Amino acid sequence: MNVDLTTGKPQGVLWKFCLPLFGSILFQQLYNIADSFVAGKYIGEQALAAVGNSYEITLIFIAFAFGCNIGCSVIVSRLFGARQYGELKTAVSTAMLASGTVCLMLMVLGLLGCGTMLRWIRTPADVLADSRLYLDIYLLGLPFVFFYNLSTGIFSALGDSKTPFYFLAASSLSNIGADILFVTAFHMGVAGVAWATFLCQGVSCALAVIFVARRLRAIPTDGKHPLFSPVLLGQFARIAIPSALQQSFISVGNILIQGVINGFGSGVMAGYSASIKLNNLVITSFTTIGNGISNYTAQNLGAEKLGRIREGFRAGLRMVWLISLPIVMLYLLAGGRLMTLFMDEPSQAALHAGVTFLRIAAPFYPLIAVKLVSDGILRGSSQMKRFMLCTFTDLILRVVLAYGLSIPLGSTGIWCAWPMGWVVGTGLSVICYQKTMRELEAL
Fold first, then answer.
1. The pTM is what?
2. Taking CA 31 as the corner, what is the angle to CA 29 and CA 35, rounded to the nearest 5 degrees?
3. Structure confidence at residue 394 (pLDDT)
4. Nearest CA to 138 among 10, 71, 50?
5. pLDDT at res. 1
6. Are 232 and 94 in contact, with CB atoms under 8 Å apart?
7. What is the structure's pLDDT at 340?
8. Cα–chain-centroid distance for residue 26?
């Protein structure tokens, strides 16, 4: 069901809209967590290191899918809020065509260049072959990642966050079973983990595309609408390209950091692989709530209801803080036990690295949550230059500090780079949010 986000009490509207998004991203993260869990539990610590090492490169490709999701979602949200349904359908087909082209180019580049990227980040010889195998299979399923993300962006733009949640929940739970089956019964090793993810992502993508097509057909329009619009492509690109670049540069930064981590051996790599999955579960969840706030912002801008945006900001903060505090306590108190979810008999190096990372990063989750809510409003109001400034500042600081602090402090110095970058990035995001709102209200 399509939902109008321009009416009703903002806090209630955002809770109803964002909670299914939060649930969706939890299940989406289960894909990668399940891969790491099965690799570490049923294959070994080196397999866990290989999957975690590959994961940082897959994030580059996911970044472009995410950018297309945001670009399509913001444009469709604005058109939906303005009741311009014909242009809305044209915007969707334009985004689908553009995203398919980008996906094809990335598949070719990835299949040709991933081996080189793995060597650039100093992947140890004992995990290189499995890392390359995992990446090759992942790239074959890249269209599923792109078109699933586009479909969920369209659902969110129409105010429906529940439908993609149902698809993803079923697919993610199936992925866990398929991972275990392919590895334990068929003895496929890391390839089994990758093929299980390929299969389950394909199912969730097909269902999402079919249902979004039905939903769009049900929206009434006058006459036929063109399948492609250069004007709407330009609007899509102005949001999608900065979003994709922002996410991909974050991924490149993480790959550079991964290169530093790889120098400490497969034990530290395995501990980082487990802890970064838990960290990304939190950060990606907040980012997804921020995406929901982007849809909320865009719809209300389209309807010219600016007062609701500030109310939405305050409601978003209450939401992410309420979610973050229990997670902080869990990671601080049970970090060691969480590491054993990924490894039966973790080495001392792996356990120490993972627990230390969580203890350093987790207390700052309420702070980074503020940044991601602010970023959501910047994206929803198409303030992409400010959005990128805040994100790149955070990223550059983290990469520089990871290199610099790793020399005197070892791997612990790398972990300290996260909260230091977050502090500066959050301050910039809040300043940019306040400036954007003053400018909008002055119009």
1. 0.73
2. 120
3. 87
4. 50
5. 59
6. yes
7. 82
8. 11
